[in-house]
Amino acid sequence: MSEAWWKEAVIYQVYPSSFLDTNGDGWGDVKGITSKLDYLQELGVDVVWVSPIYKSPQKDMGYDIADYKSIDPIYGTIEDVDNLVSELKKRGMKLMMDLVVNHTSDEHEWFRQSRSSLTNPNRSWYIWKKPKRDAAGNPLPPNNWSQILGEANSAWTYDAKTDEYYLSLFTPEQPDLNWENPEVRAAVHDVMKFWLERGACGYRMDVINLISKDQRFPDAEPALGPDRRYHPGSQYYVNGPRMHEYLQEIKHKVLQKFGAITVGEMPGVSDINEIIRTVGSKSGELNMIFIFDVVEIDTQPGNVRMTLHEWSVKDLAKAVSKWQRAMLEHDGWNSVFVENHDNPRSVSRYCDDSDTYREHGAKLLALMQTTLSGTLFVYQGEELGMRNVPKSWDIMKEYKDIESINFWKKSRELYGNDPKRLAEERKVLEKKARDHARTIMQWNGGANAGFCESGVEPWMRVNDDYKEVNAEKQQSADDEEELSTWQFWQRGLANRKAHSDCFVYGDFHAVGPESDEVFAYLRLGKESGKWLVVLNFSGKKVDWNIPDELKVEGWMAGNYQKGKPDKRMERSVGLRPWEGVLGKCID
After folding, report:
1. What amino acid positions are annotated as catalytic residues?
2. Spatial contact of 495 and 557, defined as CB atoms under 8 Å apart
3. Which of 185, 228, 252, 567 is the most exposed place for a label (fewest CB within 10 A)?
4. pLDDT surpasses 90 at 538
5. Neighbour tally for 163: CB within 10 Å
6. What is the Cα 10 distance to its own chain's centre?
7. Whole-angstrom distance, CA of residue 513 vs CA of residue 45
């Protein structure tokens, strides 16, 4: 397996609106990111990925872009971004931009022109279709596809002026670009070159596997039941017929010329051959993609994201092991992550986020991620063990995300007279809403968690636990027995880099029988040797039997203590609730 700097890099995602406000408007900004680069460097970060900061009406928190070459005033100026790149460079760090080109904002000039008339030159830059008609002649959507961020609604939006519908898979304010048009592709290439020339090292590519649609635009299967008008049409636009052609074009016309790195967001795909076609080292279009098996572990199979599904430690182990082995065997490359701006907090999702076990759970997840092969992504606040918002929060008042608002609106309309079912719908939001990841970054225990000055109201409420869970407290922790979550992450990232031959590039094997509590695996490096990782993903004490073929020389790290775990050198290892240990094995 070939080595590369980006494979060993730690990439930290900044959600800019919630990171740090420096001008007193209650909204995070670019200068706030720049001011915290020393914090990120000390943690062990190499690349800062910034979620969209382009000009936007903010209908979907910047993922609705009105101008790809301008910075939204709420975040600052293009000169602020230039300064961010310069300050990163001084520290040996890099900037990754967020590329959102499946769709634009409906306020983008391209779309303003496109919707102005049937004959405008930009008309074919978007996907327009004539309506169907009911018996009375009223317009109906061209097909039954549902909206991704509100499946009760159609993915098509009617434009009365031109009497046609445009495709808007996410929201009506986010019309899909028509990638069949070579002028659109050329415009996207131009945007990519613009930011690479300004010093960006590459892109996280938003829903990049949705850019090619089946040009027949057929009806979707009624997956949501016969009582629903609209259904997910993903089989007709996920990894569509020309996607690889478009990505190869980007690779040869843009990426290779700049040596840019890429990570593609590609939901809805789990076929190994299809993924290797995208990220294989020989002919792949992208360096890596986000594979969603782990973050969709609690989603009903074949259903939309906002559903709940019981999962087991066996499921987690299978998902992680599948892709660790697949990339080794097919010469591809993984991304390692369990959090981002579109998913709830990992300690609340996979562990026990109670005051008793929150830190142990957060460090358990850190131990797992820092010992898995692939490029590691850390989401802001994950290094602190930030958790989901309290269940007591008022949804209509405190939740801001458009997906959450649409979901709750639909739920109240459908189940307003069914308290039991409505409570179940609320539970989905409490567990999986994107809002959980978007609360204010908790810098300290002062006013507004240090995000903005006292007297300024943040755009979103600060989580109630900020006085106990914050960066200042964790960085300065001086406990003789135990590391804070931040300190554990810092140590884990340093160890990962020191033993990159093992934890980044090494071989991987799941070990032991399938378990309802424990996920264990072996990592093997050419120089660092053989390491055993044992993770107790349960709230009870477990004795885990070490396989006969393995001999642990010593337990070197764990999430319950600062030094080496005090474990007897026997054929089994006793694990406390949510405990993880790292052992050095005799080769």
Report:
1. 206, 265
2. yes
3. 252
4. yes
5. 11
6. 14
7. 35
